[in-house]
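Question (not urgent): is this output format expected?
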Amino acid sequence: MEIANKKILVVGLARTGIATARFLRRRGAAVRATDMAAEAALGPGVAELRALDIDLALGGHRIEDFTAADLIVLSPGVPHTLAPLQAARGRGVPVIGEVELAARFIREPIVAVSGTNGKTTVTELLGRMLDASGRRVFVGGNIGRPLIGYVDGGQTADVVVAEISSFQLDTIATFRPAVGVLLNITDDHLDRYTGFAAYARSKMRLFENQTAQDAAVLNGADPVIRAQAAAIRSRRLFYNTTEAAENCAAVVGTALALRRPGHEVVRLDLAPFRLRGPHNVENACAAALAALAAGASPLGIQQALSAFAPLPHRIESVGVVNGVEYVNDSKATNVDAVLRALDCFTTPVVLIMGGLDKGGNFGLLETAVRRRAKALVLVGKASDTIRAALGGLVPTVQAPNMAAAVGAAAGRTVSGDVVLLSPGCASFDMYPNYQARGEDFRQAVQRLNKMNAP
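Got this back:
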């Protein structure tokens, strides 16, 4: 791909945008970078871009910057439907995302993981399976390590493992993973897409450039994936399915058998696997199948399964106070994630929910709340919406902040209960990200523990 002397506009200046602008400038492009935020809100990366002689257009988007470019590269958080982008496309300006740009310079096989929930867990687990198998691995993508940073950093890997979001798939053109993993497709980001069908189409783009030489690892129990699987041209490896003829990952008790056509069955032990919930058994199946397809050894896969610890903010136990366990699932930013979290527990749960609504259907939680929850504590902008959908099922209160929510939850528990933060919403009404929300919950639990210390 020719870059030198081209006029390239980078849109969005968070971590990925800064890494992209840096990469392009170092290869001789005339780079301009634009962001809706003012310079004061963008942090120290702006100074680095100025030092690289990159033009900056901050505090808004100027349509002339878009229409005058030879190429536009979007950061993942930037909607690909912006009016200036439409104007640029109308003039024939190509628009791609950072993942598409990076993939054009990556020669190593890419294993790409997508889905509504579970992406980060599977991406990290898969990377560790390959690493334990003696493969040099770069793990990145939508988990804070941009793929363009791998290209720009001069690293050498045998395999690139990447978490890929629907936003990133919106702006691909030739991106072709050697192994694509699609975990599930459920309601999410409906504040950004025109509807669920549009969101699902975006997810299925993961496979659009694959050929018969590639592999697709698919959740056979997901009805949306199942309905569209026939159109996938690559080798399909199903897990979580009752269809014996296609079941490539069979779980019986704590035994996991991996089957691939033309290969011996690989048998693994899930007993040491420490992640809670049936959904994490599914995640283990997906990661193991993908790792095997990417060249991992059975021993390496087993070692990673046995050693893997829960990631922060994902069904993470953060303390026990007066016999009550407090669990941080701040990463649960949609309704399906809350369903999966509730399914991890058999003891009564006081559920803390709320935040910024992304258009989710909270009514889908009715059966799970009736079955698992003894009380509901709501916080954030979506409190009234959630209360209207679920408030009549169990005792429900609203709290002004996380500390008050934890206190209200504690007051409704007895020894043996669980307090679960599983918001079902984005965090941006009160926090910069879900990590900050989870840390606030953790600190509130720590304060509660000190108050109750003898």
